[in-house]
Amino acid sequence: MLKNIIFILTIILTSCYSGLKISKKERLVLNKNFNATVGNSASIIKSKNVKHQTLLEAFHIQEILALNKKIATDVDSVKIYFKDSTLNLYYEANEHIGSHSFKGYFTEKGFFEINTFNDKINIPPILPILYSSHYIDRIRVGLTKNGEIWVNTFFDNTKNIFFLVGGGISNQTYYFNYKNAL
User: Fold this and answer.
1) For an engineered disulfide with 111, which of 5, 95, 142, 172 has Cβ 3.0 to 4.6 Å away?
2) Taking the alpha carbons of 27, 32, 38, 40 in that order, is the dihedral positive or negative?
3) How far apart, in whole angstroms, are the C-alpha atoms of residue 28 and residue 40?
């Protein structure tokens, strides 16, 4: 009986994971006045399974361009700036000029967070042992003390009914070097 209680508590406590792998010591505060051009290729990738290697892929822009048959594989750099509560990305490739905007908010922890999806159902609300469903697609953007921009992508699509659990979680952090900063 005690083993079952410990097992259940372990599952519950480890499922409350924020997904951010960057410590406070490494971060600088990102604010709305930020304006810089960064390289499109990641200099460092912290992930078990690397899915993306460029800034545009981390924001799912490369997939959108491929669907629209506008291929922008030769993007060397991306300009990042904020207007109101919107992150704006501007890039040029071949003869294609593109820009994408993402609504989000600045957190108290000093980074910008974009929630594409954030759907959670927990029954009962505090300890979801009967049923839970999580569908989270989140991107966080911040600065490091080493003069890099980090992008953390977190995706959680899990469900459980009693002790039957299914789905998957993906958490990847990318670091991009400045081309120039204003």
Assistant:
1) 142
2) positive
3) 21
List, in sequence order, the alpha helices (H) in the chain.
2-14, 55-58, 61-67
pTM for the full model? 0.77
Cα 168 to chain centroid, rounded: 15
- The partner residues of 160 in beta bridges, in order of sequence, read 132, 165
The position carrying tokens 């998957």 is 168
Confidence label for 5 from pLDDT (cuts 50, 70 and 90): low
Q: How far is CA 162 from the centre of its chain?
A: 29
Greater confidence (103 vs 23) lies with: 103
Residue 139 tokens, joined: 């991107």
Distance CA 88, CA 19 (A): 23
β-pair partners for 49: none
CB 55 within 8 A of CB 135: no
Question: What is the token pair recorded at 126?
Answer: 């505090």
Six-digit token string for 142: 């911040």
Rounded to 5°, angle at Cα 118 from 113 and 120: 140
What region does 69 belong to: left with phi over 0, alpha with psi -120 to 50, or beta?
left
Read off φ and ψ for residue 40, nearest 5 degrees: -75, -25
